[in-house]
Specification:
22 helices; PucR_dom; PucR_C-HTH_dom; Alpha-Beta Plaits; alpha+beta; Purine catabolism regulatory protein-like family protein
Amino acid sequence: MAKCRLSHSRVDIVSMRDWKVIAVSNFAATSVSPKPTENVGLSIDWLLKLPTLADAGARFIGEPRLIQRQIKWVHIVESFRSAQLLRGGELVLATGVGWGETNESLDEVVTAIWEAGATCLLLELGQHWTETPRAILRRCVELELPLITTQHEIHFVEITEAVHHELLHRAVEKSNAMNEVSRKFALLNQEQASVNQVIDQTAKFLKCPVVLEDPMHRIVSYSLGLEDKSLLDDWQVQLQTQTPEKSREIAGNVWFFIDIEARGVHWGRLLYCGKTQNPATGRFILRQAAVALTVERLSSTDSHGWSDVVEANILDALLAQDADPKKVLENRGLPVAGENYVVCRVSLASERKIETPVIREQLRKISAINRPLVAEVTSQKNEWLVVYVCRDGTNPAEFGKLVADRLAFSMSVAGKIVVVLDNVTSADLASFTREMWNIDAAITKMRLSRKIPGKGPQSIDVFGIERNQLDGLMLKLRNDVRVQEFCQSRIGQLIDADRENGTEYFTTLKAVLAEPSSRTVAAEQLHISRSALYNRIESIEKKLGISLSDPDSAFALSIATRVVQIIE
């Protein structure tokens, strides 16, 4: 075997076959920290840093990778019979006084220690032997059994006390950590926490990225912490050929997982990537999180799947400013090409709170092939953002009418539905979703291009809203600094004044530009009198140094307000 050197600052570790040694005193100051592990044991690396060994002039003989092996207990072995009593994972202390003097007897004892699964052999020199017998060196090399030798006598009790004290300390630390994990997840269940809250808490305990997937490997929820979202790229594609047992490798990253199942139902898997430093261990944290998710599912309205969570999380992902619609849809098993989407906002006039699962169930009954994604608009009572994944070239206006008729019939409530009339593809789904989520009543009234009134006293009206070609151009250019500078120079003063003084100059300007030929209609939309409107117009013109009756000025302001609306 060729030499294999690994620099540890001032320490060089060489191949066991060369029978070279390393001063333990060097380890105490410069050895690399052990890799995170889920075992309770101590690494040989930790042992080598003990002052007792450094003072005894101890030497480590072994390959560099072996210093991470775990010690679970300490045992003294001074005979072949005592070697047979080992249970595995021990640090074996010995003087060799009862091992015999022949090569055969020494081989026999070392082999028995190795076969029992001991982690390391610490041989004291000075009392029985003054140097390590070559038979022991040779056999340790052959079996890759790490060997530590001392130059003079040491008190085995000091080594035993130090190791056992640290093992018990870590066991108590692990027990306390496990109790805290159990307590926190039990509290989350008691407070009826959502799936996303459970996933976030799991990531906090592990300090690692966490992903919840369904049985088809579609992402349900995730919490990545400081990791980039690219960690999830091509999630489904990379899993199709894998048959993991306890972990799987995705794009070079190892993910550990646990199945989530109860009462014969398999809901999917919970995974985390990396090494956790939590004493409770990653496996225990995953198990407790899986129990919490199981309780959440059994008490939910969708106890056979994650559709409610998936739908809300898809829309949340699409609402993010840096959303990549293609990746969002692919990672969740939704179509990207060949389909179109109907985006609408549903508002129902009811004094009682209507639960989202009820709305979702009714919307699913409308079409067997068009799947709805539903998310509640939390800032408004009984309002939902709905995105339909359509595979049959559905007309948005007609589909909006189907939704209105279904809800009016089944819910017996009045209301309205605002539906995007544009042909929405996956490429621009995110922008339309954000626009519909942030749309306010004033903008809706100014931009409605079609209305289909409902029938009867309990009816739901359908309003069509579309983005014209100018809006599409402004959407593409909204991040251009030149466009942003143009908007700031035209209407920045109004926005700043509204923010600082609580005025409504910007809202007034939008209403006036939307109704250039009728100040009366603009005043009605703003719910103010005509005289109040004229006073506001005078203030706006004074601040901007322009006249709203000038066509060029009005056109420039119209462009600026459209861009601001799209950005917002």
